[in-house]
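FAQ: What does a ligand-bound record look like?

Like this one, built around flavin-adenine dinucleotide:
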Amino acid sequence: MQSAKCKIASIEFQEEVVPGCFRMGLSGELSGSPGQFFHILCDKEDFSYKIHNLPANRLSLKKKPILRRPFSIHRLREGGIEILYKVKGIGTRMLSLLKKGDTLNLLGPCGQGFRIKETPAILVGGGIGVAPIFALAESLKPSSVTCLLGARTKNELLLTKEFQGLGINIKIATDDGSCGRKGNVLSLLLSHYTHLKTIYACGPLPMLSSIIKFAKENSASCQVLMEERMGCGMGGCLCCALPTKTGYKKVCEDGPVFDVEEL
Amino acid sequence: MKPKIDLNIAGLYLKNPVLPASGTFGYGIEYEEMVPLDQLSAIITKGLTLKPREGNSPPRIVETACGVLNSVGLENIGIERFIKEKLPRIREHNIPVIVNIGGETAIEYEELAGILDKEEVEALEVNISCPNLQKGGAAFGNDPEIAGSVIERVRKRFSRTVFAKIPPADNINPVALACQNEGADAISLINTIRSLAIDIETQKPILGGIFGGLSGPAIKPVALRMVWEVSNILDIPVIGIGGIFTGSDAIEFILSGAVAVQVGTANLVDPLSCLKITEGIKEYMARKGIQNITQLVGKAKLSEK
Ligand SMILES: Cc1cc2nc3c(=O)[nH]c(=O)nc-3n(C[C@H](O)[C@H](O)[C@H](O)COP(=O)(O)OP(=O)(O)OC[C@H]3O[C@@H](n4cnc5c(N)ncnc54)[C@H](O)[C@@H]3O)c2cc1C
Ligand SMILES: Cc1cc2nc3c(=O)[nH]c(=O)nc-3n(C[C@H](O)[C@H](O)[C@H](O)COP(=O)(O)O)c2cc1C
Ligand code: FES
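The answer part, i.e. the structure of the complex:
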């Protein structure tokens, strides 16, 4: 059963970009916009969810993740998308073991993506947070974009060549100083932010918190992609609550991209 | 011949025995683009209270072995906004609406029942089993006397079908009996099991609400046992809930004495679960040559007696 949002995609390729981090190409009727995500069943699409009438003892659900996992759109292509993900636990581990030709069950595109402003853009990506930032970069005019990339160390830096390939001006910061400036991306932001630029950011929570604080103090136009643990990904279970000025919002439906003014 | 799978619970007609469990399918309308809602036998809403509720602080969900813990804490928009904004939109799909109600005091349940009696709502499901409330919720459903008095108050004010949703308590039999005696038309069981998960890195509970309710395949054997026991002692129908992901899971509940089932966690994974499970039930009946689903209800117990 496929329907408007529930899709079957086949894996076109899967490659390990840096140790523990994979890029996966998916083909199917997939679309969306930068900042939106797909809610993915991290297993081959051939088992319990299709055959709904197997005797219980033949359904070894115990070895599989139960819930879907959310992954941002990393690239939008003709006839498909790419995701970029880091192996964290059981779900991403199982995803990383899948091969070209395997099929996946996806829900999406979910949520609200980045709302693109006319003003020059500063893109900020920390760690695996560069995944959705790249999709956004591809949709913007390179000359109006500065991209700030942060990672713990040089070996964990992602996509520097790809951003350069788009003709985008990139700046790098690493925690240990092994590449670019020593320190976090906030220090880069302090040097590159000027009024009238819009900040778009995704990365670990401490990084986002400091960017949110910076944006508020400088009344900067700023959008951040927030993460929260999810159930349905469809707005139905209220599990993905994020505290905002106007009470809890749903990350899966009202977000995952939020305007800093709302937070 | 097409197998007969429809049923009637105290005047509530259900065209198939598979319902979406409260809290796992929003108000239904979130899914209207994706799920042909008119094919469902009914919508059971997210738990509603008199006043809007904020719910617990995040994180609110965590996956455990074979299950899921949630501590949503009954976040909802309150009955007034529900009636104004959601109910008319659910009604467009021409299926029965079952409103799940919760509260911190017995009076609150009574007021909700009074308000909803005047609305186009086919049935109430009285949630005296939410494990995520400080007051009310499961504290009511664990005590036969209080459970009975809540149902009595609701019964007085609501003229159509009333389900009592009870928690997986040790004394589930007296609680179920008390609900039956005070006029419940059916018993839904089980709600989630109060549980805990710890993050050993931060050395703290993972959920913002500390405790959460366990659902999913992990609770299925517990739920099956309770359905079996409770349906033995009641005259009113039992609706089985707990870890149903497939048609065969549903059949297990029916064989144990449930006349219908609800599907919760599986909806989070696949919003089409109810429809797929209904198909699974039909395939099973065709394979076994069973014409009417009532032939299966409690069948596993025949040898026991
Ligand atoms: C909107 C959104 C977009 C995301 N995009 C990406 C992406 O493009 N690339 C990428 O590598 N990761 C992304 N993540 C994080 C990714 O979803 C988690 O790393 C993944 O769910 C971990 O699953 P696991 O089974 O491997 O880990 P486990 O730790 O075993 O997961 C246990 C449970 O916690 C949840 N969980 C764990 N970490 C997170 C997290 N950071 N956010 C939300 N839920 C979490 C899982 O979904 C699962 O339900 C995104 C998260 C969100 C909310
Ligand atoms: C995220 C979530 C929210 C829930 N909210 C409610 C609720 O508002 N009212 C209620 O009676 N039960 C609620 N439940 C319990 C379910 O309706 C169901 O009884 C339970 O999850 C067991 O079924 P399952 O194993 O199929 O999920 C909730 C369950 C989950 C997972
Ligand atoms: S994950 Fe269910 S509402 Fe957001």
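Follow-up question: can I read anything off the structure? Yes, for example: Chain B has one domain: 7-56+73-192+219-297.
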